[in-house]
Design a protein that fits this description.
By secondary structure, the chain is mainly α. Helix 1 packs across helix 2, helix 3 crosses helix 4 and helix 4 crosses helix 8. It has nine helices and no strands. The chain has one domain: Orthogonal Bundle (Rna Polymerase Sigma Factor, Chain: A), CATH 1.10.1740.
Length: about 190
């Protein structure tokens, strides 16, 4: 069962195979956390969202139909939960900024943990990684999602469009705009 596809594992979960769900969890735990941490800017919140994502997957197992890739469905659930949480945090603060007033991440981007070891990030050094994380957090949520899903998770624009409920063309535009914004910000930081 270890070599099974994601879709086969989900069918096994639907059939009541108790060994299948932990395999899916282990397969995606780090990848989802690596997506969620820079997306929400808070390790504890990202860990909570990771758990909630898999709880939703389990609860919605009966309605799962493998029309597309399992990971697309999984990341869409995680992203929607993250967006809900970010909106909730902003409404509590009365802020429209993605970082919000009084956000510990907005005040100290060094508090963000590195989501996963990255050879380029290691070579660029901690200062560049911190600047990149801060620049990512300043992007609008949709643009940040496109960058994280394409660059970190390696999803195709078509898959990202499914997750975001958008068109492939719109995702390409967002990716281009977000990369330009990141480059400009990092140039200002002399990185």
């Amino acid at each position: 069962m270890v070599g099974a596809t994601d879709e086969e594992l989900m069918r096994a979960v639907q059939a009541g195979d108790e060994a299948a769900f932990p395999l899916l969890y282990r397969r995606y735990e780090r990848r989802l956390l690596a997506f969620l941490v820079p997306y929400v800017g808070d390790l504890a919140l990202a860990e909570d969202l990771l758990q909630e994502t898999f709880l939703r997957v389990f609860r919605q197992r009966a309605s799962y139909e493998p029309r597309g890739a399992f990971r697309t469905w999984l990341f869409a659930i995680a992203r929607n939960l993250a967006l809900d949480q970010l909106r909730h945090r902003r409404s509590l603060r009365g802020s429209t900024s993605p970082l919000g007033e009084g956000s510990p991440v907005g005040e100290d981007p060094e508090r963000l943990p590195d989501p996963a070891p990255d050879p380029l990030g290691v070579l660029a050094g901690r200062e560049a990684a911190t600047a990149l994380r801060a620049a990512l957090l300043e992007l609008p949520e949709e643009d940040r999602a496109v960058i994280l899903l394409s660059r970190l998770e390696g999803l195709r624009y078509r898959e990202i469009a499914e997750i975001l409920g958008s068109t492939e063309g719109a995702v390409k535009v967002r990716a281009h705009r977000a990369l330009l914004t990141l480059r400009k910000r990092l140039r200002r930081e002399n990185l």
